[in-house]
Design goal:
heterodimer; A: 294 residues; mainly alpha; MetI-like fold; B: alpha/beta; D-Maltodextrin-Binding Protein, domain 2; 16 strands; 47% helix
Chain lengths: 294, 416
Amino acid sequence: MKEKSNFWLVFLFLSPALSAILFFFIIPVVAALLISFTDFDIYSLGDLRRLRFIGFENYLKLFRDELFFKALFNTFYFVLVGGPLSILVSLFAALLLNSKLVKFKKLFRTIYFIPVVTTIVAVAIVWRYLYHPRFGILNYLISFLGINPVDWLGDPVFAMPAIIILAVWKNFGYNMILFIAGLQNIPVELYEAAELDGASNWFKFKSITLPLLAPTTFFTSIITMIGYFQLFAEPYIMTQGGPLNSTLSIVLYMYQEGFRWWNMGYSVSIAFVLFLIILSGTIIQFRYEKRIHY
Amino acid sequence: MIKKIVILITLILFSSCNKKNDVVLSFWAMGVEGENIKKLIPEFEKKFNVRVKVQQIPWTAAHEKLITAYVSETLPDVFQLGNTWVPEFVALNAIEPLDSLCEVKNFDLNDYFSGILESNRINGVLYGIPWYVDTRVLFYRKDIFKKANINEPPKTWNELYEFSKRIKTITRNYAIYFPTNEWVPLIIFSLQNKAQLLKNNYTEPAFTDSEFISAFQFLSRFYNEKLSPSNITDVVNIYQAFEEGYIAMYITGPWNIAEFRNRLSSNSQKLWMTAPLPSPDSIYPGISLAGGASLVINRNSKNKELAFKLIEYLSTPEVQIKFYNLVGSLPSKKSSWSDSIFANDQHLKAFRIQLERTQSMPKLAEWENIVISKIQKYIEEVALNRMSVREACEKLNEETSILLEKRKYLIEIGSL
């Protein structure tokens, strides 16, 4: 009896939060799932009788859609190249800032973190100038190495690398801070003991720093993966998905289909496919995580 | 306590009842137009003893905002609509047919440029009154033309091509700029070449017709022979490129007159001029796009009569000329153009001539999707030489017919 009254009490206190989740999360998601089985578009918006229930047709259409696969490929390209690169750069920066040799640590930490808090729109506009084929500083710098000017954002081959460089530069500061926290959690005694045994710096890094940093690495890699799968703002501002759709990401494609052309049904089905991809990515990483705890 | 609340509520109710007596007309306009039109409204308010609430919407958010307002039934009484958006809002059943209102009010439609008025007619019914007009003409560098021994701007496709080649050999830069992320040049060329674009009440593509293919082939020659840059990023700042002579010709619209005047250095001001578009046949000028914005009335508006009065007021030549002075939008009425301000403007002459030869594009809600996500994509593919024109046209046909499937179905069941 007592337990039951407890249940209602708990429920009462939880209800504001639960109803927020219900109205702003569960209902929209269920509604979206239903919409993905229809051809909801601009015509249906005007007159609901023009809505057709088409079952899995949207999903089947997705698998025949060249552009969707192009977007999928681009997104994986971005995640698989940009993700590890971003983590490596953050780790490297964190190690540098954690080393005893570096002065003005706080200053550098702030400087490296500034891109993270700068609005992407402003950043992207400045980077467009850096990437300019005729006047950009990047081409000026590589001209000293004897490399011909590269049309960074205009060439389908270089556009995605250009986006990756921008994204890594913009985001590494966040993971860097996490890595610094992780590094400071490693007990100093371990390094002292290793030094007594005459371990080299590389050996210390390999056998102490990396293993003990594993939980942080795991966390940052999941966060980075989820974030990078949702690539949107960078190509949206820099290239609009071009040239030749070489920077079209899944989320950008979803946005274009949904809010530009109002093919809501189709757009939502893209969202669900992306959800499944991120879910499976996270499951794989969690499987892997069990092996890395010390 | 309860008494007080009741009194308060009645007070509120009464005060809102009072307000209901004077009519408030809501009006949405976009970008600079929205910002500046407020200055012309007080005169109308005084004349008809009404209040007009003007809301300005940025162009970039306009489409979304209008659709959202439609869904939530908060569209204003009168609003501005880019004339390519009219078919979409007709499909939504959101705007009022204007033929009978025009007839009752004796509103003179003959004073409008026919191509542009036509873009507001869907299945023979008029839905919008052109507010300002916009079409594309050729902007060119007089000095470079002179250097290449060209006395007059090109009048035919052949001349356009020959002149471009001559300019290229002299400047060693590009001759003309057809941005690969712009569908406008291809659509202009194909309309000039009498291509149908879409057939059977716009339910099937006609991109494999010979008229369209040869227009596309004409455009692709400029890319293949490096007469036009084939990468978007070759020209990041069009004004700088024009000033440097990196390009000598550019097909663009009236908004660039003010931009060219502001952004080119004072030395270059005498060096540029505008001309009507060349044509594939002997009829000069060739056809250009019928663009611009229209004023439309919300179908659910309670003040349609008054809303039309606002449109009438904004359409008088005096107001149109004032409006031109404020924002530089070209007046939609021919009679407004007789004002000296237009007659004396050497850059506007080409526009005045071109406006007599415009044609509207296919009028369907999907058109913007077709040109931006399909046609533009294949222009890029052809410009970068990844695909032949014929291949591109076949792909274009294939993808467009998928896109038109719903429209075809709705027309077949008689729902559209």
